Amino acid sequence: MLLEGKTILVMGIRNKWSIAWGVAMSAHENGAKVIFTHHPTEKEDKIQELIGEIPDAKTYPCDVATDEDIEKCLKTIKEEQGQIDGILHSIAHANTEDLRNDFIATSREGFLHASDISAYSLVAVSRIAKEIGLLKPEASIVALTYFGSEKVVEGYNVMGVAKAALETSIQYLAKDLGKEKMRINAISAGPIKTLSAKGIKDFGNILTVVEEKAPLHQNVTTKQVGDVASFLFSNMSSAVTGEVIHVDNGFSIIGV
Q1: Which of 32, 59, 126, 220 would bridge with 3, disulfide CB 3.0–4.6 Å?
Q2: Any idea what DSSP says for residue 242?
Q3: CA distance 98 to 238
Q4: Is the residue at 220 inside a domain?
Q5: What is the pLDDT of residue 90?
């Protein structure tokens, strides 16, 4: 199995429809020990019920809005779980009004919030995990992004800007982490019916367009995204870093 003997931390678990859960299941099926973080406002009993499908899984509260909370969480994980081999960053948030209104109406507060939670948190997590020695040598970090960072997607708005910042951050992080043979990449997944996707206006139309236009004429699944993440966590991708890999049935290559 690809991830036999590895421990993978999945940050940002919410429910069974999420991409994070698809990654967690793939990592588990490929032999990894999987642990989680969740936002402190999530109902922990529901999170516990969900992760109960994976033997010995444990979740830790973590609010990535503050470095102090990130450090506290990651130090606890290191104390209880030891060093880990990989981190999935599946954390993003924007204010509803900044997704529903025209982008030009984005507030300064909304812009900073989306950028902080959706992009800077990856920088903070990477730095703190490295500083406290949570990551094993040759560890792999994977973040989730979306095509709205490259082209205008109706209703994605400020989140597209935040994801663009995330992707560029990955390039610079790859240079820094590479000094210690650690890797970081992103997966640009096609649209999936997740809880977060409900915040995007006319999301159903996006699914229809992808199915019509993508070379493989279908929408991607969380399992397919999860399997690519498992590859990126594995030794088989040891020469891959700083990349954004599209997992969208080819939709991103279509021009017209």
Answers
A1: 32
A2: S
A3: 38
A4: yes
A5: 98
